[in-house]
Amino acid sequence: MPESNLERQIIVLFDEQGTPTFGPDRETDWFLGVTVTYDLTDEKQIFSSCSELFGLSNQKPLKNNRISNSRAELISALAAELPLEVMINSVKLANDEFQQAVRLFEQFGNLLRARHREVGERNIAQILHSQIVDECIPHSIFGYVERHMTTSAFLVHIDDWSIPRSDVGIYLQGRTQSIQEKVNTFYEEQGPNLRVRVPPIALLDEDSPRKRLVNVIASAISRSFVREGSARLSQVPFHTLLANHVNRYEDITQATIDFIRHLMDDISRNPLLAN
Q: Whole-prediction pTM value?
């Protein structure tokens, strides 16, 4: 049963790491989605505890290329002790089967966009970003609900990605409704008796402590996914975070391949789904 009938306010921050392209010039063979989830009542304590190390109050944000491996290790160690939960999803860009599925989906989707919505094309980077958002954020919400069992409003903020103008409503409002329905349908069928509310997704389009928090944690995690031989390669931050059982990692490469194939098959059988 829920701890309380009062709705708790839960912050969900999303950031991505890596270059979502299949070109040979990409820095890493992985594309990551990272969420940081915490109760709004803990935000002041979190910011105060990590402000100096994470550069939350610096004049300029602490960029990935300015974070040494030793600092990344300290960042992950502190993040593992703070009252927050980290979810990491990844897709392997170097996977041939994955590349084939995404490229086919790009062609298929752009054909439907032109025919049914009369809008411009969506490129592979935007497709990959959309897919990892759709996996990472619901997983974060499910995980938080399972651990806390309380009626909550999840206030989702995602990085300021270049969303096609024609997709803003679908990308933000449509995704909000989809996440809320997915979570509530599950708990209506499986229990317990609680409700989840997801207000419209907000963009982290301006510099802020929230944007810096998720970016710095994601940057530290990314050290485990750079290519062998890179001076920035370090497994320590990743494993330090996962030593705390509330933090989780999942490689969703195969799940994404399966989803894309099933979606294209369903639309081919029922063209009305394209709308």
A: 0.89
